[in-house]
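1st attempt posting a full record on here, be nice pls
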Amino acid sequence: MPPVHSRATHLSGLFTTLIPRASSSYLPFLYPQQRSASILSGLSDNPAAYRKKIRRGRGPSSGKGKTSGRGHKGQKQHGKVPRGFNGGQTPDEVVHGVRGFDNQFSVEMKPLNLEKVQSWVDQGRLNPSKPITIRELAKSRCISQVKDGVKLLAKGSEKLTSPIHIIASRASASAIAAVEAAGGSVTTRYYTPASIERIIKGKTDPIHSLQSQIALPVEEPPEHRHYPIRLPDPTGRKDIEYYRDPAHRGYLSHQLEEGQGPSLFFKTPGFGKLVARKIRSKAASAAENRIW
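the predicted structure (as tokens):
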């Protein structure tokens, strides 16, 4: 009886004779993978996987030897120097003082000129048959880096020929007149920085909110009822007064009666309840204070 290893050698030779080399994928155990042992010496990380530590004071070849990158002598070599230190000289902000202030109520509006809107319409990047909102303006690259909103301006209004229906945060009086003269409409509505980010991402309706009753003459997209987060409405007095004003084409102007002003502080004459004040005499007041 032949030994076992000789029988295995005979069988492997038989399989090799019967099965061609091209079909080695069917019997992988007959053809073990061959790989050079030198692969272990070539293993390394990605080039940007880590940064090498700077070894200071280890000879001139490193570029950080001798003085370790600090230069020669002085305070900057021997110790730490505070930021903005002028060597003991009185700092400029102490000598001249800090002038002015930061207005916490100011808003940063992105300007949008009518000539650019018309150029985007001519290129086919904006569709005038649909409402033009912040989302369409951002997706078409007409505006970018919007913080507090978009303000429509009238630069190049003579080039506007298309009737557009645009919804912006604010609009100048000349821009409103130019758009309406071309057969379009302007609606101003309230946005917050967070809501603008959600509008661009498609998570918030760019037009409708709880208090809005915006009726546009063009057909609106049918998906405006399926947004997960609603659009906020203004809560500050200045914002409410701005978007209640029909002159600004505010979206809250439907809350006003005809002839009523947008102010929440100053009442329009003829509007509101009038309370008649009763004038009492001293004798009548004394009679009411009697015990019997």
